[in-house]
């Protein structure tokens, strides 16, 4: 005789399991979708822009799945069968997806601050540590906020303990991206390898491969970096229907490979051997970035960054008119100081030195967001100072090069080379040979561009990608999975 299970549901006056604080009878009870319709109402309301209705639907989906878990999995697992215990993991992942949708709606409605309290009330929907870890994960995402407060998110995610103790394959890469520079090189590479061994997400895989390649490159392991980039490109080319983010990462992989070949002579490789390889990879990157600009998934910030990355590719190809065209396209959409630095460089290359100096003189170290951008500003300010021969600018460049910044070894060497050139220019004045040396010292991979590749922002906020389209796509994917 089969065991009979009565469905466990909240009493009408009991607080609803969606985390709203409303009584179940007045909240989700009338809207429970059942197994056939779960997720459908949310997706329909989301597409139509009916976010208040989407909120009710998302709450009902969370409550419905919690009812199933408590009525079935929670009871079955008590018999102690290890095979049945795997059902808990299935429930944790499924409920996480429904709660993530719920967070999307709160975010869209401008009620992000409320969602942290909602998450606390959802903490016991599944009574396992793994579920409680998921709540911490979502709280960390919320802590990032619209201003992308990585420190606040890092404080939240460290509640899980040290990164080495985290085994959840969805939480680990997020934690790793927040920890980033706080980890030593060996540990960071080790954690990246752990992500690559466990992740089933294509976007995560190609991103972490590109990050690993950058770390190896910045620590003088060009051969190791190129091998990892080959794997990243192979991974990207195997995607059947790559999404926008995966196509972006493939473009960045080609760009970085072309950049390493471009810098071959300065990093111990045979420059003549890799000249053609550099051109081929950079041309491919330019093609991919250009195609990405036609994609409708970008917001104005994302489009600006794409133009900036495309300008970086053309910079290495020496096509300065195209560099200027794309850098100015980036500036029209987002007037970031770092874009102005490279606009100044282009004007200098095109012989318009007065424009270049006017732009660079209008910037200061305080204008830049991080050490990578500051380092790029310092190098390019120093190059223009050497070219101008102006003693006041050269003294300022010397002071800037003395500023303590976090620099990986390969870029620390770049700064030391530039310091020698600046000191020589102070002693002997302007010369064509010094100008060429300064150009060479500042012409390698752009630090700020490499740093932008190291950052992976979760889909709830996009990566310069239009949040509407990202979440809509995620909703459609989840609905397909539900079926």
What brief labels describe this structure?
mainly alpha, elongated, Serine Threonine Protein Phosphatase 5, Tetratricopeptide repeat, 483 residues, single chain, 0% strand, disordered C terminus
Q: What structural class is derived from the secondary structure elements? A: mainly alpha
Large-scale geometry: elongated
Given as residue ranges, the uncertain stretches (5+ residues, pLDDT < 50) are 454-483
Largest sheet: none
Radius of gyration: 26 Å
Distance between the termini: 30 Å
The overall strand count is 0
Order of helices and strands: HHHHHHHHHHHHHHHHHHHHHHH
**Helix-residue proportion:** 55-70%
DSSP strand (E) fraction? under 5%
Give me the number of helical elements: 23
Mean pLDDT: 84
Task: Tell me what you see in this structure.
This protein is an all-alpha fold and 483 residues long. It has 23 helices and no strands. The two termini are 30 Å apart.
How do the strands and helices of this protein lay out in sequence?
Layout: H1 34-37, H2 40-48, H3 51-76, H4 82-108, H5 112-121, H6 129-144, H7 150-157, H8 171-179, H9 185-198, H10 202-218, H11 222-237, H12 244-262, H13 271-292, H14 300-317, H15 320-333, H16 337-349, H17 353-361, H18 371-388, H19 391-401, H20 409-428, H21 432-442, H22 447-454, H23 467-482
Helix pairs in contact: 2-3, 2-23, 3-4, 4-5, 4-6, 5-6, 6-7, 9-10, 10-11, 10-12, 11-12, 12-13, 13-14, 14-15, 15-16, 16-17, 16-18, 17-18, 18-19, 18-20, 18-21, 18-22, 19-20, 20-21
């Amino acid at each position: 005789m089969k065991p009979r299970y009565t469905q466990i549901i909240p009493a009408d006056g009991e607080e609803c399991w969606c985390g709203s604080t409303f009584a179940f009878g007045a909240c989700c009870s009338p809207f429970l979708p059942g197994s056939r319709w779960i997720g459908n109402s949310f997706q329909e309301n989301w597409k139509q822009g009916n976010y208040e209705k989407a909120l009710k639907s998302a709450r009902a989906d969370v409550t419905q799945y919690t009812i199933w878990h408590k009525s079935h999995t929670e009871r079955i697992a008590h018999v102690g069968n290890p095979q049945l215990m795997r059902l808990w993991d299935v429930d944790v992942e499924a409920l996480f997806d429904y709660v993530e949708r719920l967070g999307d709606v709160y975010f869209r409605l401008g009620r992000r601050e409320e969602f942290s309290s909602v998450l606390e009330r959802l903490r016991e929907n599944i009574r396992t540590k793994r579920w409680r870890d998921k709540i911490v994960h979502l709280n960390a995402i919320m802590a990032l906020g619209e201003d992308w407060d990585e420190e606040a998110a890092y404080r939240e995610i460290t509640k899980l303990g040290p990164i080495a103790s985290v085994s959840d394959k969805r939480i680990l890469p997020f934690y790793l991206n927040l920890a980033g520079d706080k980890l030593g090189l060996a540990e960071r590479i080790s954690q990246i390898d752990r992500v690559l061994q466990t992740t089933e997400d294509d976007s995560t895989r190609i991103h972490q491969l590109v990050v690993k390649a950058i770390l190896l490159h910045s620590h003088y392991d060009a051969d190791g970096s190129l091998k990892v980039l080959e794997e990243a490109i192979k991974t990207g080319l195997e995607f059947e229907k790559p999404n926008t983010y995966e196509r972006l990462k493939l473009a960045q992989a080609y760009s970085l490979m072309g950049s390493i070949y471009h810098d071959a002579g300065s990093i111990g490789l045979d420059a003549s051997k890799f000249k053609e390889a550099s051109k081929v990879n950079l041309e491919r990157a330019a093609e991919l970035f250009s195609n990405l600009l036609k994609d409708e998934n970008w917001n104005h910030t994302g489009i600006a960054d794409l133009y900036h990355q495309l300008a970086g590719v053309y910079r290495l190809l020496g096509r300065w008119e195209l560099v200027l065209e794309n850098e100015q396209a980036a500036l029209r959409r987002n007037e970031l100081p770092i874009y102005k630095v490279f606009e100044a460089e282009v004007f200098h290359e095109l012989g318009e030195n007065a424009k270049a100096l006017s732009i660079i003189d209008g910037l200061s170290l305080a204008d830049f967001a991080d050490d990578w951008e500051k380092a790029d500003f310092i190098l390019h300010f120093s190059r223009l100072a050497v070219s101008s021969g102006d003693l006041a600018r050269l003294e300022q460049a010397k002071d800037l090069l003395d500023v303590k910044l976090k620099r990986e070894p390969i870029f620390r060497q770049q700064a030391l080379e530039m310091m020698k050139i600046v000191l020589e220019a102070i002693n002997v004045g302007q010369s064509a040979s010094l100008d060429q040396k300064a150009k060479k010292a500042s012409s390698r991979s752009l630090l700020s561009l490499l740093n932008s590749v190291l950052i992976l922002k979760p889909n709830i906020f996009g990566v310069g990608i239009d949040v509407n389209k990202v979440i809509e796509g995620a909703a459609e994917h989840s609905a397909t999975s539900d079926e």
